[in-house]
Design a protein that fits this description.
The structure is a single chain. The protein is α+β, with helices and mostly antiparallel strands and about 170 residues long. The protein has one domain (about 15-170): 2-Layer Sandwich (Alpha-Beta Plaits), CATH 3.30.70.100. Helices cover about 45% and strands about 20% of the residues. A five-stranded antiparallel β-sheet has the order 1-2-3-5-4, with helices on one face. Helix 2 packs across helix 3 (about 95-115). The longest helix has 23 residues, at about 45-65. It is globular, with a radius of gyration of 19 Å.
Length: about 170
């Protein structure tokens, strides 16, 4: 099996411009920023997290829709459930994103993190920003498929696509 690979110049012409977030840690490509946190799990926290997990997953769309800028969000426990990795891609700048999550999803995030993540001060604590920043590890490599399409843009395109499909179905 032979694979045709484009010449190096053609591959490099597709390169994305990766910058640092202008107002905080993390990388940025177009309208998308990344955030990765690594920290410790409290003793018994992994069991509590997994017990609550079905509810977290069931409510994710509601809470993340309120925030309105999250492209993807994941949490994993590792090192025999002693550490966690939280990683997400979001639209916009770092500080407005933090304000959005505190103002729009605090109850949900408190239920995820309370009793699970070491040092978690609670979303209503004045120390929440400092806690988040202390655990951040900007990505060394970051790529996004559509760097200039926000969550709002994607939802608008989905509605438009459905409307056109419905119109074509009705006309057919």
């Amino acid at each position: 099996m032979t694979t045709n690979i484009a010449p190096l110049e053609d591959r490099l012409a597709m390169a994305q411009t990766v910058t640092n977030q202008p107002d905080g840690p993390g990388k940025r490509i177009g309208k998308r920023g990344e955030l990765t946190m690594i920290g410790n799990v409290l003793p018994g926290g992994a069991e509590l997290f997994r017990k609550r997990l079905p509810q977290f997953q069931a409510e994710a769309a509601y809470w993340e829709d309120r925030v309105g800028t999250v492209q993807d969000f994941r949490i994993l426990l590792f090192d025999n459930d002693s550490r966690f990795l939280l990683s997400l891609v979001y639209d916009g700048d770092f500080k407005p994103y933090l304000i959005d999550i505190v103002s729009q999803a605090a109850p949900w995030l408190d239920s995820i993190a309370s009793g699970v993540l070491e040092g978690y001060p609670g979303m209503d604590s004045p120390d929440i920003g400092e806690w988040v920043i202390s655990l951040l590890h900007p990505a060394d490599f970051f790529y996004v498929g559509t760097p200039d399409a926000t969550v709002r843009d994607v939802k608008k395109m989905q509605k438009l696509s459905k409307a056109v499909s419905d119109l074509l179905d009705a006309a057919g």
